[in-house]
Each structure stands twice: as C-alpha cells, then as structure tokens.
Amino acid sequence: MRTLTLQRVKFTMGLPLLKRAIQEQAEKTKNFVSRSLVIGEVLSMADMATGVKCGIIYWLFGGAVRNLGSPAHVTKWLQPLQEQKYTGMFAMTERGHGSNVRGIQTEATFDLSAQEFVIDTPCENAEKMYIGNSMYGNYAAVFAQLILNGRSHGPHCFIVPVRDENGSLHPGVTAIDMMYKEGLHGVDNGILRFDKVRIPRENLLDKFGSVAPDGQYHSPIKDRSTRFNAMLAALTPSRLAVTFQAMGSMKLGLTIAIRYSHRPIIILLNCSLASAGHW
Fold first, then answer.
1. Whole-model pTM?
2. Chain segment 56-65, per-residue pLDDT in tens
3. Which of 180, 214, 256, 263 reaches 20 to 30 Å from 168, CA-CA?
4. What pLDDT is stored for residue 214 in this prediction?
5. How many CB atoms lie within 10 A of CB 105?
6. Where are the domains of the chain?
7. In whole angstroms, how far apart are CA 56 and each of 38, 40, 154, 223, 276?
C-alpha cells in the first residue's frame, strides 16, 4: 500500500496543475495559499493517504523551505523538489515535545572550524516521532536548538540528509518504522534519530536567524520570543492544509452516509409501489 501511495504521489505531482501549484509556491504568487489548500482538499477526497503524503512532501517540507529559508534556499531546494529529484519530510514533533516546540531537545551545534552544524539526538525524548515519509524521504526539515559556543539561540530549521538517491540511510541517521496508522496505511510514519550528523552551514534555513562564517548569530528580529513566534506563524498555511484535508474527507464521508441513509426509504417505497400493483 505504501509503494502504491508513493506512485500515486509521483503521478499526481507530475500533473501540470500540481506542478504549477509548486511553482506558485516558490514564487509566492498571489492567492497561491488558497489554491494549494483547495488542491489538498480535493486530493484527500480521492485518496486520503495520497493527499496526506503530498502535503508532507510539498506543503510541509516545501513550505518550511519557502517560509523559513532565503531566496537562495528556495532556488536550491524547491526546483528539484518540483522535478521530483528527491522527496522530503517535516521533523518537528519529538517524543517528549508534541506541541511544545520551544522545548525541543534535538541539537544543532555549530562547528566553527568545519563550517558545519552537528545535528544530534541527545536523549530518547528528543527522538523525532510520527514523521511522515520517514521510510522513503531523502531530506528532512529538522527543527533543533541552534547552539553557538554552548548557548542555545532557540529552535531553528535545518535541511538534513536522511537517505541517498538509492534509498540507503546516511551514516548517523536511524529511521524506525512505526508501522500502519489506521485509515492511513499508505503513509509511512516513523521515528528519526541523529547521531552527530554533519551538515553544511548553508543548510540552516535562515530567514529569521543566520550564522555568519565567523560564528556570529544575526537576526532581523532581536527579541527571542518574537522571533520564535514569527517562525511558527510563517508555517500557519502548511498547518491549515491539514484541516482542509480533513474537511475533504468529511465531505466525502457525509455524502456516502446521507445516500446510504436514504436507501431503506427508497427500498420501502419501491416495495409499497410493487405491492399496490403500480409496477
């Protein structure tokens, strides 16, 4: 079922309408959010697993790049995503931190000499959980505490490689299958752990906070709480997509339920007409 869902995602996102939607996302075309939400709703009415997986890859991962990254990030990551050269995932939730994003424990420590961030899962509570596309995805948008000289500057988002083009996990990355989720057997949710995985400094999505080559932190928003709120607010359209997907599924279910509820009345009416000799 998961393989079939992935095939459906690739076919669907190869359609001209969907490719145009991703391009509009990259270019921030007027009303692109509304159109994307409607597309997600319709996809979920056709097949919920396909709709959810498209949302993970293109609207959660892709949305993180677009909303939290620089124009250079958008060019580097969204174009090949649109061309289906790789797939992504969105890794925010942790075992010990569901809605408490501010308290996440995954660490991204800057190594000045190597010009790299070291992504690490320091404890069990820091494991990323219920991550969609975790069994197939090549890259993850990972939220982690940005640490410079032993000091945390709060949660930031990093692009972390998970698998190569052949599907093999990169060294230091562990992905654990959480198996089937009822109603979404085509979606591969899993647990992600990182053991000192190194990524380039440029893989920090730095719209709201950046690290210069000399290790200095810079942000257009000086207040830490305000900066954190701005980062989460930028992801609101991606989170709204979940409600539209649920709405699409509810519409379909309601239509089926209403039609089914009318069946006994129709059958009874037909029987009455037949017994009365009208047929």
1. 0.87
2. 998 899 989 9
3. 180
4. 95
5. 18
6. 2-243
7. 16, 11, 24, 30, 58
How far is it, in rounded angstroms, from Cα 155 to Cα 46? 36
For the chain, give the number of residues.
Answer: 279
SS (H, E, C) the chain: CHHHHHHHHHHHHCCHHHHHHHHHHHHCCCCHHHHHHHHHHHHHHHCHHHHHHHHHHHHHHHHHHHHHCCHHHHHHHHHHHHCCCCCEEEECCECCECCCHHHCCCEEEEECCCCEEEEECCCHHHCEEEEECCCCCCEEEEEEEEEECCEEEEEEEEEEECECCCCCECCCEEEEECCCCCCCCCCCEEEEEECCEEEEHHHECCCCCEECCCCCEECCCCCHHHHHHHHHHCCHHHHHHHHHHHHHHHHHHHHHHHHHHHHHHHHHHHHHHHHCCCC
131, 89 in Cβ contact below 8 A? yes
Q: Measured between alpha carbons, how far is 128 from 87 in angstroms, rounded to an integer?
A: 18
**Exposed, middle or buried by CB within 10 Å (0-12, 13-18, 19+), for 90?**
buried
For tokens 């379909």, the residue is: 252
CATH number attached to the domain at 2-243: 2.40.110.10
Q: What is the pLDDT of residues 223-240, one digit of tens each?
A: 889 999 888 887 787 778
User: Residue written as tokens 């995602």?
Assistant: 9
Q: Facing residues of 169 across strands? A: 163
